[in-house]
């Protein structure tokens, strides 16, 4: 028994065992978010019709995550649970990757266990492992790509190069940010063994294998060219990142503001104690300097790059690049407890440094409405129009109303939370017709008024909070989080008398 407890694999399995309940506990307590509704609806369509497997490209999104959800929506009855379960699986992939990266990089399995533990308790990973968004899978693929890149530069083998190329390609099928893993390859030369025999030949082989991996990744990425919508990816990227021709006109204008905002998001989710611990690990430069420099650069390069070129930023974009910092913290924890003297004090320090992360994570699980999220995420997911408080209730209402008679539903919006949040639950109900409207007219269209005279017709308002000027009867409303100024409103359209 004593041997089992000392085994790193025991603690890794314990982290995995704890990961499952933390990610699945009240998985749908947070209502559906706008982007989740879009991705889940895409997954449903692609799962039912093979010709639409590349449907995400119609909005410039790579399809890998939606492909994963196409499998889960076939398994689980609740579409939201199915979509989020795909992220839970992605997070488990990330947790194991953190163990592999920490163990290999520092040749110490305790570092790997600490890295997995930190991923387990992180509010950052907890938040996005429980949402049907791309970012948890982005993080997992980034960690594994970094791990395989470390293997390649240390062992310089063809099989590793081929696996690396496939891993890079899979990442690029998920999101454009995966190209960063390819851009970071030159920095892995920090780990090259300059004392090896025939080092010039070995270095040349590493360069060739790295180029082979990049070429192979591009061949895999070219799968997307089979879709006529491939070109939209480049167009969509310019919404979030400045193309060079625009950036050169104001190269430094947004750098300071973006850096400030992104660093605030990092410290809010990673917490100041752990951010400080990661930077402290770099200050102990006489131990494992090259490994720590690689981790630091793996955070800093994409962080500064996004700050330079970022046009529209959200906290979730910082998640994947924060993971190398957690490995730095893991090394620092190992360094503290590895000393023979003062181990009790060291373990107490590890616990105290981890408490803020565990506290925020517990708060997220227990009461997401009041949890201390960043302001941006608080607005998007809880308090403003992109959040979906009230969606389960109105879905249940429509399901009941349509049991014995046909009804029609009109929604404010044609893309996003509405009508997709209703479609993912109700689209197969033959008694329900769902139609989106945008822009929303001040006067009710004649065809909608005529339809209201034939069968019960309802209106769902969400994005704008303007007064409805149509002939309607108010049914109910749902406050978004703790914001009384943002309401999901449900009305019945009243037909003119005589109809």
Which segments are poorly predicted (pLDDT under 50) over 5 or more consecutive residues?
Answer: none
C-alpha termini separation: 79 Å
SSE class: alpha/beta
- Side-by-side strand order of the widest sheet: 2-1-3-5-4
Number of strands: 5
Q: Into which percent range does the helicity of residues fall?
A: 55-70%
- Determine the strand fraction and express it as a percent band: 5-15%
| N to C succession of SSEs | HHHHHHHHHHHHHHHHHHHHEHEHEEE
**Number of individual domains:** 2
Describe the main β-sheet briefly: 5 strands, mixed
Number of helices: 22
Shape: globular
Q: Report Rg.
A: 25 Å
Mean pLDDT: 94
Q: What's this entry about, in short?
A:
This protein is an alpha/beta fold.
How would you describe this structure to a colleague?
- The chain is an alpha/beta fold and 499 residues long.
- It folds into 2 domains: 2-379, no CATH class; 384-493, no CATH class.
- Helix content is 61%, strand content 7%.
- The protein has 22 helices and 5 strands.
- The chain has a 5-stranded mixed sheet, with helices on both faces.
- Helix 3 (34-48) crosses helix 4 and helix 6 crosses helix 17 (319-338).
- The longest helix is centred in the N-terminal third of the chain and has 28 residues, at 79-106.
- The chain is globular and about 90 Å long.
- The chain starts with a helix and ends in a 6-residue tail after the last strand.
